[in-house]
Hints:
Layout: E1 27-28, E2 38-40, E3 48-52, H1 59-69, H2 76-80, E4 104-106, H3 113-128, H4 131-139, H5 144-157, H6 164-176, H7 184-190, E5 197-198, H8 227-234, E6 243-248, E7 251-255, H9 258-274
Antiparallel strand pairs: 1-5, 2-3, 3-4, 6-7
Amino acid sequence: MQMNTPPRSTIRLTRRGRVALIATGAVVAGTAVAVPLLSLEDEGDTRPTSLVIPEGWRSGQIYEAVDKALALPPGTTKKSIPKAGLKLPNDAEGNPEGYLFPATYPLKGKATPASLLSFMVGTANQKFNGAPVAAGAQRNAMNVYQAVTIASIVQAEAASKADMGKVARVIFNRLERGMPLQMDSTINYALNRTTLRTTTSDTRVDSPYNSYQRMGLPPTPIDNPGEDAMRAAINPPPGDWLYFVTVKPGDTRFAATYEEHQRNVAEFNAAQKSGSSQPAK
């Protein structure tokens, strides 16, 4: 089938919206931002009172944070999942990725991994299963789980809240045209890493999360998105964009044609060479 997309050896979409020519080598993505995990009663009290889950964290990061907050051996929270009785959608097949809702959770005396994960999943269900999300998903010919999956990609790719809707529209436009998503955030997930130096070899990884080689959405969400990303996923603005590139922080360009996109990429590469462009955070 003829696809309206350049050869994969020529161009790629990258995490945080930055796109670069593979011919130039590899591109480095922004590093993860360190955030406070625990809130304390006061400076003299070392007992955590709450656990902060940032938007865009993966399940593995959350399991580690719960272990740390509850002073449990590493791996305890992950091992608790099969018996936690999490109320996940059938499509999740027991995998809570995407449904560990980012928020601040209180740590009470009897908090356990199962109780905390159940609280997170319950919050996600409350946010995602309401009429607005369900109606928005149906309006876009998808179910809620697929909407959460798109929201997770938006959360990983958008350089700012203002870009989220346009990133979602790029995803929809590519799906509707039978184009591979070619999102480096999915490659990052497949390789279980939080920083990117995507090479041609990386794009050949044998994984259902390889959106260079596999058509359609990945099988599960790739992180745990927040409400802004979810709103973007169910109600993206109209537009014919197929590409995007963050030329420099605060300047993301969306393009409908490959020719326009090439011009934007040229500016990105020029900015990289001059040192005026820094990786998005």
